Amino acid sequence: MPRLFTGLEIPADVGQTLSNLRGGLPGARWIDPENYHVTLRFIGDIDGVSANEIASMLFRVNRGPFEVTVQGLSSFGGRKPRAVVATIVPSRPLIELQAELERLMQRMGLSPEGRKFIPHVTLARLYDASSQDVAEYLSVRGWFPSKVFTADRFVLFSSRASTGGGPYVVEDCYELSRRNAVRSAP
Questions:
Q1: Catalytic residue at 37?
Q2: What is the pTM of this model?
């Protein structure tokens, strides 16, 4: 039974910049750069028939390419930090793509995603990291010049049931093609 999710891949040059921020935080388990991604919709453990139906349905998405901006670092978890993440600026095309994927998954019978969509790239999972250590790490490494890339496809990833961080496998990819996208007025 595969564990599936949709997401955006992170280009190698952006991944290299993010990987240079690794280290210097006790209790962090750093994600390998080849596993960096932006999760659009977690699907979960799905049987093979449902996985095939989902993969086929995703071809219906009809959106154009868009720019993605990676801007700074933050953490999730508040007083009990659980992850260090690179922040993704929540642009309209990104939010609309994620919302469309959410609607498609609900049409397939999946429960609505329980968490608000906060676009990010997980860089490290935290185990027993103190909020003070995380604050100090972010004060030193939390700012870097923004990185921008064009998302010209999204992918269906699979992962094995493990303690987060990959490895992730691209099961299928879905082009974001301008030929089908609605053009906005100049």
A1: yes
A2: 0.90
